Amino acid sequence: MYLIAPSILSADFARLGEEVADVVASGADWIHFDVMDNHYVPNMTIGPVVCQAIRPVTQATIDVHLMVKPVDRLIVDFAKAGANVITFHPEASEHIDRSLSLIREHGCQAGLVFNPATPLQHMDYVMDKLDLVLLMGVNPGFGGQKFIPSTLTKLDDARVRVKAHGQETGRRIRVEIDGGVKVDNIAAIALAGADTFVAGSAIYHAGQDRDPHRYDSVIAAMRAELARVR
After folding, report:
1. Could you list the mean pLDDT of each consecutive 10-residue stretch along the chain, which spans 230 residues?
2. Active site residues per annotation
3. Range of the domain at 164
4. Could you give the 3-state DSSP secondary structure of residue 116?
């Protein structure tokens, strides 16, 4: 039920392929790409060429979070580069329905991302095109931030909407969380409604040497916490 998606934003970019391979070997389910353009958020990170370079390294799902504006051109570029999941912020698209359709037309799962102050109502009109909903536990732009507690209430609201849609249609929509996820709060976040967890510094800063199993313990600790959730 639960998926762990380490964010490469906190990885060692000098040996990124090795970092991805090692974290998957340690039990990660997805690899999360935080894509920033220095326009929608005040930082700049990676583009489709990095996704294309990483794709041969792993069979794991590549989960691309677009913090960019506009989004449509990069949707196509990342899909061609090997992305499996692509999400974007509703504020960054002139036509949310069309952008979601574009993702799905290129063979990827599609999702919307909600900042801490962005209302969830955007999702109500496009539920049929959503494969996941991503809630930010921090304000986007930088890794290593502390989790915003009010996100738990918002997660519960998202879970209610997703559950109602599932009962009506039989479709499964994942609820993903990104920002401030750590071993000591992952269980509470799961109880609030998340089933997919993006963790950057909590995982990648846990291993300081070149041991290929350096991420085993932190991912195992997260899974142990999730196993306590009923």
Report:
1. 96 95 96 96 95 97 97 98 98 97 98 96 96 95 86 97 97 96 97 97 82 90 94
2. 34, 178
3. 3-227
4. coil
